[in-house]
Amino acid sequence: MSTKKRGLGKGLSALIPDEPFEDVLEEDKNNIVDLDIDLIKPNKEQPRKNFDKDALEELKESIQNYGVIQPIIVRKIDKGYEIIAGERRWKAAKMASIKKIPCIVKNVEEFEGMKLSLIENLQRENLNPVEEAIAFKGLIDNYNITQEELSVAVGKSRPYITNSLRLLNLDSDILLSISDGKISSGHGRALLSIEDKKIQNEIAKNIIEKKLNVRETENIVNTVKNKKNSVKKSNKEDPFISEARDKFMKKLGTKVVIKHGKNKGKIEIEYYSPEDFERIMDIIIKN
Length: 287
What we know:
The chain has 287 residues and is α/β, with parallel strands linked by helices. It is built from 14 helices and seven strands. Helix content is 53%, strand content 12%.
């Protein structure tokens, strides 16, 4: 068995101990078979939803000239085969009217197939931020995987996973703009602190029209929030409370609201998923 690492290493083996991804890609050539392309179906859980038309056209022309050089990875299903990795090659081969395509047939369950498909796309950086977030959520929701386990498997930090999932709280029109590359995930994270979806979209349109960077977006968001807060408050916030709130937010990595009265008050800590709640609890308890 190869010991070569490709960025995921033992993290992937923690979830798929018997099927290291690097070995899937390094199958012996004797295990490659030519399958009827019409017997192969795309993976319904494929995290990647958008395929660049120009890139597909270029790949089609390459396949017409040189054939499919790298085999795709499939698994046997009741009627034919399902793609684990290599849907772009399969699509381009169909466009090129190729009748048979080289494949490596793997005996993996649906969950492992989805993970391999996700990880292949993550390694190749083919997923846009929204597709990535949806894929993360699918693994967590459908297969009872924690954020910590997922972070180890895909070689991303837990805060990265959490921030990615938080994007899904944005309005659908903003998510579409992120998917289309009109605004970045950084813009999206800045907009998350605006609860009003209408205002979110107004700022997003401003970002696109004026080509604002993330820092400029954060300044606009802060201005909107400050105006909203000034309407709600008749008195200036106690500097001590403001400093305490900022320290809480920096420590916990989430929104914190302190409602301070004359003799009593309360602290509200926001979380965005059960895993995020667990993360915040860990920080509080350990300290």
